[in-house]
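Milestone M4 deliverable, item 7.
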Amino acid sequence: MTKSHVRNDEIAPFAFRKRARRTKIVIIETEGVIRMLSAIVIDDEADLRLLARFMLEDAGAFEVIGEAGNATEALEMIGMLVPDIAIIDLHLPDMSGIELIQQLRDRAMTLRLVAYSSDDLGLADALLAGADRAVLKTGRSEELIAALVA
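Output delivered:
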């Protein structure tokens, strides 16, 4: 049985801001083993994948277990690594992020899907396609973290 809970006694600072803020760390307990949430970042721009990785790891609540530059890599990686969360750019070179979200939902994948885009035009479509949350890349790091734990 898998349980998810937030430990109030552990807090971690966010990066990339003038004033430090803190968030609660999300812990997953599966059959007596406690671990952080695992995530995969899917974006065709390597620097944005790296930035997302830094934001997640700096929050202290996530372990980034993979990065993919296109949807084909992402599908293969998600099948092998089975992350808790996938952060998906909507503008991928081999298929749209919306199509990727639909494929993952059609495969009955239970991972949390977060659409991540530099413009808000496709975010509503991503939610209709099955994304759990949608976040602008231009937003603050705490907006991404909040979407992942909400």
